[in-house]
């Protein structure tokens, strides 16, 4: 059952965990990505945290745009086209896959696994994309910023690290906001999955016993949460949400407790992740290479 927290003037929040409720809420008319900041102090604070994710010309990163935004739609269509031939994309990053496979086997890493994953994701957009420790640390800063609680948020504001991190990610992405999203935010779930594969692969027998599909099923991770806002009072499944409420979709929790792995990417919905086929295939190829 969804959890609703209403504190007048402070917070209007609904947390959705069940797979069916999550899918219904995500698809409901009037529920979308851009957040107005209305509904309470906490709602405004959340919106303020999203402001750095813009280009110098003011373009928002796609993940924070409405599904009706034409530029977001353009980015999504272009990325879906890039990823339509999954085998070809995997071949393009065969060098990075080999590095990740060695890491899964337990070999000492020449560079942090996050740098390798970031470079693999970046090369979907630019064949000569090169990640660095600096660019990966910038991505970690952005992930930490979005996940930070009030105290850590204040400390990060005072440290003035967030905007330079955005700038670093955008510079490596050559100003492409879709690439910036992939290399700054979306890569972290892949990094976690590769780390879990390394734990599984500590035993050589496990590498031989588990099929790539089984390994992916055990290590695939979804975003812990994604944010939406109800523009008006909305009813989805058994959940009723008041207008201007922040809706927290606990995607990873829904994946764990459901039978549909596609929910990790909101597959089949209007805002499904364009990488819904590519990421599982990438993880499967890494496991296959590690086991060979």
Instruction: Provide mean pLDDT, rounded.
Output: 93
The biggest sheet, with number of strands, parallel, antiparallel or mixed sense and barrel status, is: 5 strands, mixed
Report the principal-axis shape: globular
Q: State the low-pLDDT regions, or none.
A: none
Q: How many strand elements?
A: 7
CATH third-tier fold name: Cytochrome p450
Taken in chain order, the helices and strands follow as EEHEHHHHHHHHHHHEEEEHH
Q: How many separate domains make up the residues? A: 1
Distance between the termini: 44 Å
Helix coverage percent = 40-55%
| Number of contiguous helices | 14
CATH class: Mainly Alpha
CATH architectural arrangement: Orthogonal Bundle
Give the DSSP E fraction (strand runs of 2 or more residues): 5-15%
Structural category: alpha+beta
Rg estimate, integer Å = 19 Å
Structure description:
- Strand 1 (3-7) and strand 2 form a beta hairpin.
- The protein has a five-stranded mixed sheet. A two-stranded antiparallel ribbon has the order 5-6.
- The chain has helices at residues 19-27, 41-50, 70-82, 86-92, 94-104, 113-122, 133-147, 150-159, 162-172, 177-200, 204-209, 212-219, 251-257, 278-291; strands at 3-7, 11-16, 31-32, 226-230, 234-236, 239-241, 245-249.
- It has one domain (3-247, 266-291): Cytochrome P450 (Cytochrome p450).
- By secondary structure, it is an alpha+beta fold.
- Helix 5 (94-104) crosses helix 14 (278-291), helix 6 crosses helix 10 and helix 12 crosses helix 14 (278-291).
- It is globular and about 60 Å long.
- 41% of the residues are buried.
- Helices cover 53% and strands 10% of the residues.
């Amino acid at each position: 059952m969804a959890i609703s927290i209403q504190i007048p003037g402070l917070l209007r929040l609904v947390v959705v965990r069940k797979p069916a409720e999550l899918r219904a809420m995500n698809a409901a008319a009037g529920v979308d990505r851009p957040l107005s900041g209305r509904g309470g102090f906490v709602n405004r604070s959340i919106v303020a945290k999203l402001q750095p994710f813009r280009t110098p010309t003011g373009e928002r990163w796609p993940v924070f745009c409405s599904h009706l935004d034409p530029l977001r739609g353009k980015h999504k269509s272009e990325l879906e086209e890039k990823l339509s031939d999954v085998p070809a994309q995997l071949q393009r990053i065969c060098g990075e896959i080999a590095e990740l496979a060695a890491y899964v086997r337990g070999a000492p890493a020449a560079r942090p696994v996050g740098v390798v994953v970031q470079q693999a994701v970046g090369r979907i957009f630019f064949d000569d994309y090169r990640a660095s420790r600096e660019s990966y640390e910038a991505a970690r800063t952005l992930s930490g910023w979005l996940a930070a609680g009030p105290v850590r948020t204040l400390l990060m504001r005072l440290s003035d690290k967030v905007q330079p991190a955005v700038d670093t990610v955008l510079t490596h992405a050559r100003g492409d906001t879709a690439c910036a999203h992939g290399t700054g935010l979306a890569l972290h779930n892949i990094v976690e999955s590769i780390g879990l594969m390394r734990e599984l692969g500590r035993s050589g027998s496990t590498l031989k016993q588990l099929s790539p599909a089984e390994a992916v099923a055990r290590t695939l991770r979804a975003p812990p949460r994604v944010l939406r806002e109800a523009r008006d009072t909305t009813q989805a499944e058994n959940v009723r949400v008041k207008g201007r409420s922040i809706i927290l979709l606990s995607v990873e929790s829904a994946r764990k407790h459901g039978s549909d792995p596609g929910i990790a990417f909101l597959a089949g919905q209007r805002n499904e992740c364009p990488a819904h086929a590519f990421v599982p295939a990438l993880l499967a190829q890494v496991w296959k290479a590690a086991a060979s």
